[in-house]
Every structure is written in C-alpha cells, then in structure tokens.
Amino acid sequence: MKKNVFLFFLAVFAVLFTGCQNNESDFPSSDNPTVVVSTKEIYGAPSRKFEIKAALADDLGLKSVRIQIPELSLDKVIAFATDPLLKSYDLSYFFEVPSNRGTSEAFKIKLTITDVSGNAIDEDINLRLDGEFTAPSITMITPKEGAVILLSTSNQMPVNFVVNDDSGIDYIQIQCAALGIDETVQLTGSPQSYTFNKTYTLPVTADNYVLTITAKDKFVIPNTGTLNVNVVATNEYPAIYLCDQPKGTNLTTDAVGVPMYFHDKNGQDFEFKYYADKDNKEIYFLGQESDFAPHCFGLNTSGELVDDVASTPIILPTKGYYVIKVNPNTLKYTATKYTPSSKVWTDVANGLWHDEEVKRKPFVSVCGSGIQGADWDTWTAWVQTGLHLANNPNNPYQLVGEYTLTGQMEATFTGQWWSPSWRLIKNGVATMSPGENGNAKYPAAPGVYKVVLDTELERLFVTKK
C-alpha cells in the first residue's frame, strides 16, 4: 500500500513538473518568420571575406538563425534571447572563403530561421567564387599630381590618362566644378583598357584646381575607382625644384627630398644650396615636384637654359657644395662653388648618454612615427642603436643611416633630450632647433630606405633602397 501511494505522488509530481516546464518554454502558435535577403547571389573569392545580409522578422519572436555551407565547413547558429522577445533582426555575418577553393566553384548558402513557436523556414543564397573586386586602375599621364601650368605661357591643360580593368570598363568621368568640367564617356563593348586624351582651356585666374577622374567597371557588382589630381594654374612659379636623377626616373618612389626644394626665393629668383657628390654631376630644375613634365629646365644645344622636357642636364664640374641661382622667367642660372662654415657634428656614432652634460657625447638618432623601432622618446632613440646615424666618411656635413619605414613618416632627428635636433618640416626641410615648428607628415610605401641628413643644407633625403 505504501508503495502504491509513493508511486501515485511521484506520478503527480512528474505531471506538475512537466507542466511547469512547458509553461516556461511553450509559446502560442504564430505565423512563420520572414526573411528578406539583400541579394540572392553573392560573389566571393578564395581567401576573401563575404557578407551575408538579411532582414529577419516574426510576429511573435525569433528564436535562432542557422547559416550553413557544408562544403566549406560552415555551420553557424545565432540564438536570440527570449526575454524580451526579439521580433526583428538585421543579419550581417562575414565568412572568409578558404584559400584552397577554386574560383570556378559555386555553393548554396542555406539560412534556417526559427521562431519561438517552433516555425522554421529556409532561404537559399547562391555563392560564386569568381568575384572581381578590384577597382579600375587609373594611370595619369598628364597632368601629374601637383603639376604647374604657367598661364603666362599657355592656358591649355592637356588631360591624358589610361584606365584598365579586367572585367571591362563601363564609363569614365572627368570633373572639376571650378573649371566647369563634367564630362562622362560611356564605353561600349566593355573594353579592358581605355585611353582618354583631351585638352581643356583654363581661365586666366591663377588658382589651385582639383581634377577628379572616376572609372566604373562592368562587373555584376560594379567597382569604382577615383583619382584626384591637384593642378596649380599660376602666373609665376610658386616653387622650383632641383633634380639630380636621370630623366624618366619615377620621382614619387622616394619618401623625402627628391627632387630638392629651393632654399630662398625673391620674386622669380630661386636660390639653392646643393652638394654634388661627384665630379660632373648632372642636374635639372623642375617646375613641379612629381615629374619631369611639363616644366623641365636644362640646356639646349647652344648651352642655354631652356624649359624643355627634351633638354640636356646642367653639369656641375667638380665635387662639393654649390650656391645655385635660377630664374625660370629670364632663363638665367649661376652655379658657384663654396666652402661650408657651419658646425661639423663629428664622431656621432660614438655618442654617449649621460645626465651630466659635460660627460655627454652627442649622438644623432630619430624620434617619430612610421619608422620601425622609433617613438617620440629620446631614450628610445638612444637605446634603439639601429636608428643611430653615422658620419658620412666622404662628407663631414652628412649623417647617414638606413631605416625601415612602415607607412606615413614623421620625424625629428635628435640626440639626448632634443640636443642637438633637426625637425623635419615641409618639403624635406630639416631645420636645426630652435627653428620652425610643426613636423610634416610624409606618405611612404613600407620598405627599407637610405637616410641622409645634410646639416649644411638643412635638408633630409630618404630614398628607397
């Protein structure tokens, strides 16, 4: 009898317990959940992430969404809280395609959306791995970035560039609101390469203009490339640069100092100090920083200075320091050799850090950013010996080294507690402190660079190794 009573109460308890559990987990019946995907076809590629986007909703509450691509070992369940109930959810899920998959493969992405009432629906999305995600490349022939157009000579601006794209080019667009330029060229046949060449007339007003080139490709999900080119239209040259590189050299490869900015300017009389590191050094004067065109000043067959891209170089006959003066309007120049009288920083490679100044030996290292191993602490500059500059055995006024740049560079070349120090400001100018404030930031491709700090010229040269 006792056994039967025990079993009766156990059964009642079980029913009550089960009832309580059901009351906590059961929800009333409801309509099926809904899903609206952003696209029914997604393009991906090996080793590239793609995004699955969808708007999920349910009249009572969502329970979960399951994302499956069995062939790619993807089986992800996102569960939603039920207190409070979630009636809508914007799905944004990223997944990287394994590197060993082929570009010709295609898969189904299966989404299973379940609501709290137990209703479930499936939605399939096509995944293709033959996606093309590279924007059209735009190669500017003229004008180059920072090009100077001398209005007193000509107000014509030739615009010449080449666009390339693997999936074919849809259109190109040239815009400059200040010049009233807004031209679109719609291409037929989806060419993979297109050359634009047209000359625009500039107003007589001297000003800086931004030319915007846009190109769109013909891929199913189009890619767009844009290039902005700054152009200076002027009645006189704002700057002249001294270039000692062979004609045709890419002048945008190096980080700082090539070509070299002038030292002094009075009207259109420009003055440089320059070090020729060998006899018969060849130089040009340029009217723009990034290219030999359109203004390249060299010699003609009569030995006269001309503004001609086809000109030959000016020759500095012997090694040493020069004061060079040039006027791009009168086309006159002089080059006079001189002996520097500024301080020579000797034996910097054997510097010594010491709190007592009399026991200290000067060293020259670097503080800054974008330089591997450097920060803005002079103690770091001291302990990171790979950042220390050494004397150039061939020129007592030059300190040399080799740095690895990691990106945009900003620098002050310094000893202990900023003594001595040369602050790198605009245009490769390295002024000795106390001097002009305001470190400049220089874009640079990551890599190894040669560094030359010329303390006589107060110029820095950071050139790709």
Can you tell me about this structure?
It contains two helices and 33 strands. It has helices spanning 2-25, 378-383, and strands spanning 34-37, 41-43, 49-57, 62-69, 74-79, 88-96, 106-115, 120-128, 137-142, 147-150, 156-164, 169-176, 181-186, 193-201, 207-217, 224-234, 241-243, 260-261, 264-266, 269-276, 281-286, 296-299, 305-307, 314-316, 320-327, 332-338, 365-371, 390-392, 395-414, 421-424, 430-432, 447-454, 459-464. The protein is extended and about 95 Å long. The longest helix is centred in the N-terminal third of the chain and has 24 residues, at 2-25. The protein is mainly beta and 465 residues long. The chain folds into four domains: 34-128, Immunoglobulin-like; 137-234, Immunoglobulins (Immunoglobulin-like), CATH 2.60.40; 241-338; 348-464, Sandwich (Immunoglobulin-like). A hairpin with a 6-residue loop joins strand 29 (395-414) and strand 30. The model is unreliable at 5-25 (pLDDT under 50). The strands form seven sheets. Strands 27, 28, 29, 30, 31, 32 and 33 form a seven-stranded antiparallel sheet that branches. Strands 17, 18, 21, 22, 23 and 24 form a six-stranded antiparallel sheet that branches. It has a five-stranded mixed sheet with strand order 2-8-7-4-5, with no helix packed on it.
